[in-house]
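Project standup — Tuesday

K.O.: blocked on the structure for the chain from last sprint. Re-posting the sequence here as requested.
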Amino acid sequence: MSVAPLVSRESPALLPLERNTLPLVEMWLSQEENYKWLDFSPLVQPLNAMVLKMMAQKPQHFIQVFRVDTSPAGIVALSNINQSAGTATLWYLLGNKQYAGQGYTTRAVSRLLRTAFFDLKLACLEAWAAESNTASIAILKRNGFVYVGTRRQCHVIDGRRHDRLWFDLLSSEYKEIA
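H.V.: unblocked you, prediction finished:
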């Protein structure tokens, strides 16, 4: 699969999930077009404000809202952070679709990876994408993630089973995207 070049060069700002952005993020995560690609467990799918707030307060999660200019555009996050093993799971979401296809999510992920590897001192991140989520797969590849395997038929979208493609990235492989 070839990966198209990034269109825009503006780097999105990353900010912590806060009270004023919580309702917007909750709205994004309540939209089926967004939550169908994620998996937080059937008990909390989609995530609500209370669960998001609790996640943001726990050390196993690092959730950031990314902004383009002054507008919140999406979220980038690490979950399942294990400091002793130096690992975490990356996930992200473009909430404001007016920014789709412009490289903002790709660059927001790159900025989060920098934080993960340099500030949090993590050694390896993993991420997965449903096989049909070509945009997410492209974001992972642009950020240097390496395909490591397939978990077959484990993701359900609209009643149909899909494979999940698994990727990882070592801190030594990270290259920041401008």
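K.O.: great, moving the ticket to review. DSSP finds five helices and seven strands in the chain. Helices lie at 22-30, 32-35, 49-57, 104-119, 134-142.
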